[in-house]
Amino acid sequence: MYSVAELNDLLTAELQRRSEDLKEMKPGNLYEPVDYSLEMGGKRLRPLLLLLSCNMFSDSVREALPAAVAIEMFHNFTLLHDDIMDKAEVRRNRPTVHKKFSENSAILSGDVMAFLSYSYLLESKSKDLEEILKLFTKTAIEVCEGQQLDMEFENRLLVAEDEYIEMIRLKTAVLLACALKAGALLGSAKLDVANQLYEFGINLGLAFQLQDDLLDSFGVQESFGKKIGGDIVANKKTYLLIKALETADSELRNELTCWLKKAEYNPTEKINAVLDIYNRLNIKELTQHKVDCYFDKCNTVIGQIMVSENQKQHLHEISRSMLNRVH
């Protein structure tokens, strides 16, 4: 089996090759933002999970590289459009695409990224390509459904916990799960095993997104790659806010609601005030407990997959690293 570092090297080299291709494509103003988006880096967890999953069942990992690039391209497309909707200015410690270029450029370049992802995926040589394409298409639709729910929650004061979990399942978890299942199918794993890896990915994705919520309020910007407190300023219905509104007494709930309804405010003052409420309600600890619950489910699922512990080793390693980011 390849080590995680070796898989990373293979992925980096392939992305660099694709980047050089993008630099030659015309019109340049369409593809330059695409290349910029890919060059912004990030941990590239989804394509790495795809390669790792494939390698659990096959040594022909290089044949899965086009699908890995497809997953990364699609993920970056979703981030690009999310940043427009959220009016985000920083992504991975660099200006977001719509800030560096323009909003129109970001929209159109994002569109072409979605179609490029299919183009790359079609390069895959697998007897299960039709199944993989169906999975990828279903996932793409679900990601859009999750984004729509996220937008709708912005116009509601109260969102139930189960509604929120379903939203992040669609918006975040299904793409991680898709990467793992697609990788398994590319490695010629049996469908039932590929489905177990999909379930593992759902729970890992839920834990990952909940931790993302946590880091947005309690993280360190240099490590997190985005401005801290952005969700608070935008009144995003994160797990933290939902639990705060659910567990606060009437006085504290009124104080929090006032901040949510204010049209004019100092962003720093609002962030500090809401964080103070979170601290009084032990929201950080409640959220971390929820993260741990989903991670425990990951361990249960992976324990049921009938492959050797040696084959599972790297999956354990990368999942732990995903949930061991700097607070």
Describe the structure.
With 327 residues, the chain is mostly helical. The chain has one domain (4-322): Farnesyl Diphosphate Synthase. It is 76% helix and 1% strand. The protein has 16 helices and two strands. It has helices at 4-24, 28-39, 45-55, 65-86, 97-100, 103-121, 129-153, 161-186, 191-218, 221-224, 230-233, 239-247, 250-261, 267-280, 283-304, 309-322, and strands spanning 90-91, 94-95. A two-stranded antiparallel ribbon has the order 1-2. Strand 1 and strand 2 form a beta hairpin. The two termini are 32 Å apart. The mean pLDDT is 93.
Key terms for this structure?
16 helices; 2 strands; globular; mainly alpha; Farnesyl Diphosphate Synthase; two-stranded antiparallel ribbon; about 0% strand; single chain; about 325 residues
| Percent in strands | under 5%
Given this structure, which CATH class is correct? Mainly Alpha
The ordered H/E elements are HHHHEEHHHHHHHHHHHH
CATH architecture: Orthogonal Bundle
Major sheet summary line: 2 strands, antiparallel
Number of domains: 1
CATH topology: Farnesyl Diphosphate Synthase
Q: How does the helix and strand content classify structurally?
A: mainly alpha
Total strands: the figure is: 2
Give the C-alpha Rg.
20 Å
Strand line-up in the sheet with most strands: 1-2
Unreliable spans are none
User: What share of the residues lie within helices?
Assistant: over 70%
Bulk shape: globular
Within CATH, the superfamily carries the name Farnesyl Diphosphate Synthase
